Amino acid sequence: MGSVDEREEALALAAQAHDVAWAADGTPWQRTLRAISGGKWGRQPTGWTVIRLNAPWQDTPSSERPGWRERAANLADDVAFAVDYTICGRCGLGWVEWPYTAEQFQRCGLATAGLKALRLEHPGLSWHTLGGHSQDSRAFWTAVGTDVLGRYRQRETCPHVPEG
Ligand SMILES: [Zn+2]
Predict the structure, then answer these.
(1) What Rg value do the Cα atoms of the chain yield, rounded?
(2) pLDDT value at residue 160
(3) Ligand 1 centre and the CA of 113: distance in Å?
(4) pLDDT value at residue 117
(5) How far apart are CA 27 and CA 48, in angstroms?
(6) Which of 97, 108, 118, 151 is most buried, judged by most C-beta within 10 A?
């Protein structure tokens, strides 16, 4: 559980979920973004570049799942929330996987706001997860899935998107 200040910042961050900086795939783009954003960059053992843009919320190529995107919220130079996602307009389906909230920012609405922003950006999709829901996460998915088409139920990817 974070300090009062940290929690207030996280609550403010959750309210900004519509304000997203985008990074496209591809090295030239990434170089440009690095130059203009002053974002922090690292390299993971997988060889995928991890991009941290200088923005409250960011949307970048997923470092874990080739072809997927990662939506993340930054706070105090660190990742407060992150989730991988992909969508298929043809099938009207969206998937999210591995939502992560830093411990000190939990229960500040970041995950709820982040998932909601994705739904608003892609209206009409049925939303799912790839993996099954662990005992621990069932209450979370039930809460965020209420009134959501698909309810984030487990579903395999369609043939049009990377498997993740
Ligand atoms: Zn599809």
Answers:
(1) 16
(2) 94
(3) 25
(4) 96
(5) 11
(6) 108
**95 C-alpha to ligand 1 centroid (Å):** 11
Residue ranges covered by each domain of the chain:
4-154
CATH assignment, 4-154 = 3.40.630
**Ligand 1 centroid distance, CA of 102 (Å):** 32
Q: pTM to 2 decimals?
A: 0.81
Ligand 1: distance of its center to the CA of 94 in Å?
Answer: 9
pLDDT lower than 50: segments of the chain: 31, 34-35, 37-48
CA dihedral sign, ordered 30, 46, 88, 124: negative
Q: Is 164 helix (H, G, I), strand (E, B) or coil?
A: coil
Whole-number Å distance, alpha carbon 125 to ligand 1 midpoint, is 11
Q: What is the pLDDT of residues 34-82, one digit of tens each?
A: 445 444 444 344 444 556 677 789 998 888 888 899 999 988 778 899 9
CA of 141 to the centre of ligand 1 (A): 23
Q: How far is the CA of 148 from the centre of ligand 1 (A)?
A: 19
Q: Which residues surround ligand 1, an ion (CB under 5 A)?
A: 88, 90-91, 158, 160
Q: Measure 133 CA to ligand 1 centroid, in angstroms.
A: 22
